[in-house]
Amino acid sequence: MFKTRSWERLWEDLLIGYLDEDLLPVLIEFFARPRAYTLSSCSGRITLSDSTYPWSREETSIVFKKHGPVEPVEIEDVLRHPVVRRLWLNVVGPIIHVSARDMDEAWEILRIAREAGFKHSGLLSVHPAKGVMLELRTGVRMTQLLALPGKRLHGREELESVVAVANEILGVGKERLGRLLEALRSNRPGELDPLVVEDEAAARWLG
Questions:
Q1: Computed over its alpha carbons, how large is the radius of gyration of the chain?
Q2: Mean pLDDT rounded to a whole number for the chain
Q3: How many domains does the chain have?
Q4: What is the dihedral of CA 23, 117, 205, 30, to 10 degrees?
Q5: Among positive and negative, which fits the CA dihedral 136, 140, 146, 147?
Q6: Distances (CA, A) of 108 to 111, 134, 151, 184
């Protein structure tokens, strides 16, 4: 039941533009495993947050977000607006949440993920209905302070260098996402879930 609803929501999110499309092939591979499916996930992103600390959750405003490379002009546009607390540039690699039906499947997914470079992956919880909840992470990340209230910390040339490094780090995360896709394909179970195999939209991704 949970898997079927999550599968339907995946395509709904894709239709309305909510789903990060870089993730689609990887998510389909997870759903194709009879004993697994995915929940909220991200292929990696660059954000600008107005917050006291880059990890703050309270009193934080995400003022810019992109799942692909950014241009310096995009950051410049944000810097033209007043800063309330501190303006941080944050890069994070892929984060994928997976539900496994049992511990055997959970350990197999963790093995595959870690071999693909998702070294910071682990078990989050065990739910009686949803199964074993996993979080797959690469550890790829970057944080840079860009501005304080009334004070910009980087000139144009320096900002271009910061953006270039941020894009490079985002690319490392995307490369590991590609490695995870290949690892999932080479470690497919003997039988795939009919829910996915019989879906015309998913068939071309499975090959």
A1: 19
A2: 94
A3: 1
A4: -80
A5: positive
A6: 5, 11, 50, 10
Reading the block at residue 88, the tokens are: 């941080």
For every residue of 130-197, DSSP letters joined together read: TEEEEEEE---EEEEEEEETTEE---HHHHHHHHHHHHHHHHHHHHHHHHHHHHHHHT--SS--HHHH
CA gap 42, 171 in Å, rounded: 14
Query: Domain span at residue 190?
Result: 2-204
pLDDT category of residue 174 using cuts at 50, 70 and 90: very high
Q: Which residue reads 């991704």 in tokens? A: 205
Residue 59: its pLDDT value, please?
A: 83
Block residue for tokens 């990887």: 26
The number of angstroms, rounded, from the C-alpha of 22 to the middle of its chain's C-alpha atoms is 9
Q: For 129-142, how does the pLDDT look when each residue is reduced to its tens digit (9 = 90+)?
A: 889 999 999 999 99
Residue 169 backbone dihedrals phi, psi, to 5 degrees: -70, -40
